[in-house]
TrEMBL record:
Record-linked NCBIfam families: HAD-SF-IA-v3 (TIGR01509)
Lineage: Bacteria, Pseudomonadati, Thermodesulfobacteriota, Desulfobaccia, Desulfobaccales
Protein known as: HAD family phosphatase
InterPro entries, per database record: HAD-like_sf, HAD-SF_hydro_IA, HAD_sf, PGP-like_dom2
Signal peptide as annotated in the record: none
PANTHER family: ALPHA-D-GLUCOSE 1-PHOSPHATE PHOSPHATASE, FLAVIN MONONUCLEOTIDE HYDROLASE 1, CHLOROPLATIC
Pfam families linked: Hydrolase (PF00702)
Amino acid sequence: MASHYITVLALDLGNVLVKVDHMRFCRRLADLTGLPPATIHAQVFESDLEFGYDTGRLTSQEFHRRVMDRFGVTLPFSQFSCWWNDIFEPMEGMAELVGRLAARYPLYLLSNTNALHFAYIRKNYAFLDLFQSLVLSFEVGSRKPEAAIYQILIARTGRPASQCLYVDDKLPFVVAAREQGLTSWQFTSPAEFIRCLKQHGLY
């Protein structure tokens, strides 16, 4: 697509703007339960639990209680929250890049996330203030790759879908975005993202 047609940028959060390591949480819960970390991952991050929490159907307290019930263990909510949130690290160079892009283009965030994670990110990563709108799965009741969440993003931009460049690290979500008319690209590294921006005449 010709570069001048891109007028809006939309970014994923996890493993685009910040690094995410779900296994850090899984290893801690594995120590408590005696189960393998891979089992914890499957039963939390690949299950109805995460779907319910990511789409706002479960509150943080309900999610905590259901995880405890699923594994038959007890962990105070405050400690659970610390473990749950201790999975993020800065993505080198992205905060600075977002600052430069925000000075030139409207920025939007599109993320599958939950209340605890996003409260932590909001508190610790100031670059979120540079985004014009945050489309968060737990607030809108839909998550990628469902069509609804992409349509919410498109509506919020007020621009034709093809004028929005959407960047996500997960290929199925990139493909789903294209199916909704968005121009989309798979994130692999900050350097490759800059290359993508240059290809579109945006950097």
